[in-house]
User: Fold this.
Amino acid sequence: MKSIDKNTFVPMPVVLVGTMHDGAPNFMPVGWVSRVNAQPPMIGIGLYKGHATSAAIEKHREFSVCLPGKELVARVDYCGLVSASKKSKAGVFRPYTNELKFAPMIEECPLCMECKLVKTVELPSNTFFIGEIVAAYADPLILTDDKPDIAKMHGMLLTMPDNRYWSIGDEIGQAWEIGKSYQSGGQAKSA
Assistant:
């Protein structure tokens, strides 16, 4: 193995975090995101402390997490290039709200979640915000058996330190199932 940049973490899902900034919807692309609790469902996002999005979450204690499809890559990246403290991003997407007033979501995104802030973890350069998912919404076109289907969503990934966007590829197996075919010693069971 070769030693590489320790700031490597691949791959990361790309989401847009929605907040209200100066009375207008604001969206920021985020790669540092993960589910962090099952019941109640919670999601965590890591944001640099200087972002307007971080200040808006701290102020309103609400945010959304929206999963864009790959066809939105230019608009997603644009939202990462422009700071809400310098220019409004309200017109980039068609925003909507539902249960939470300060967690705007995006009509163009096939999956959106409204979150209430439950915990903030201060780190040296970033803040890790943990939000309880209070409601989730999906475009019916991306559902299979009433569940989001990643193949239909055409989601995006981010790799670092090369800073590239990728589309999600093919399914390779069923979680908590495919491993049942594996036997001790590295041999797969024959069917």
In short: The longest helix spans residues 52-60.
